[in-house]
Amino acid sequence: MGNFKNAVIAFLAPLPSIAFYLTFLHHYNTTITTTSSLNPLWLWCSNHPILLANVFFFFNVNLLFWVVGLIQSSHWMIDLYWTVIPVLLVHYYATHPFAFPNQWRSTVVILLTWVWSIRLTHNYFRRERWQWGAREDWRFFNMRKQYGKNWWWVSFFAVYVSQQAYQHNELTTSLTNMQVFLIGICLPMYAIHSVEKQWNMWDSLATLVCLSGIVIAYYADTQLNEFVTRNNTLKQLGSPTSLTLETGLWRYSRHPNYFGEQLWWWGLVLFGWNVGHGWTFLGSLINTLTLAYVTVLVERRMLKQEDRAKSYKMYQKTTSVWIPWFKLSPREATKDKNT
């Protein structure tokens, strides 16, 4: 029953923004005269697409999701909607009155965004054993215990207004807030739909980069899921488990799933650069820097597990961090360190 209730909540959550936006489009499209005859509210919405996206995000995600999280005592929904919001944004930019895109480029980017979202959403539910809202992020769970009775208001800033990571009983603020983060990395979607430039070889290259990122991330996450599932089965049987995943893509990179995800976002940047909006790289740059920081936190957690520390230290010495590369033998790794 709880699973069904959370599914209904998740589907209803974005409806306020969607309803408002469709109302705006209706008023805009049914205005026969010049835009100056529009209601001031609709005129502002038509002239400020990026600001309007931020308003939607603040009220519908930051505020509404926070209230839902307080009622349910779990801020699970923000993780799920990380995979959905880019799809909503790409359709928003494609249908906004300011849009003036090349239809080929627009269609390709929309399809790519759907494929990316389906891949990531599938991985989310596979990790959560196909349940809606079964648990919240481990960081939020730890912060809930730390802040106690103050968590109700702290959570608005810690979970929604700013992302934070928990480490060594301290809160380390990440580089950017959630709203700027998601709006920022999706800025190439705005650029793509604001310039009608003919499709060219750079678009083809950008498509290849995006698809490569999606495929690499999918296989990396699948291999990780199989590894975790196999270890859980062995643990239940009382058999020894594997300490470190070093097969498949994980033989050539310690975080191939992160690498694939970065390829996807930088592929979008290439689309934006090709239409003359190279400045849209800023969102992906911040995303990359943040993910680099997350990588450090993840590896510190690995090294804190006594049974895995020794194995993982060797894995660090022999295997590339992100970019897949040839693996060093333990002897070569030791030799490089000594030299």
UniProtKB/TrEMBL annotation:
Keyword Transmembrane: yes
Keyword flag Membrane: yes
Keywords: Membrane, Transmembrane, Transmembrane helix
Entry-linked PROSITE patterns: S5A_REDUCTASE (PS50244)
Gene3D superfamilies found in the cross-reference section: 1.20.120.1630
Superkingdom: Eukaryota
InterPro entries attached to this UniProt entry: UstE-like
Parts of the chain that traverse the membrane: 7-28, 48-69, 76-94, 106-125, 150-166, 178-195, 202-220, 278-298
GO (cellular component) term, any one: membrane
Protein name, per record: 3-oxo-5-alpha-steroid 4-dehydrogenase
Organism name: Macleaya cordata (Five-seeded plume-poppy)
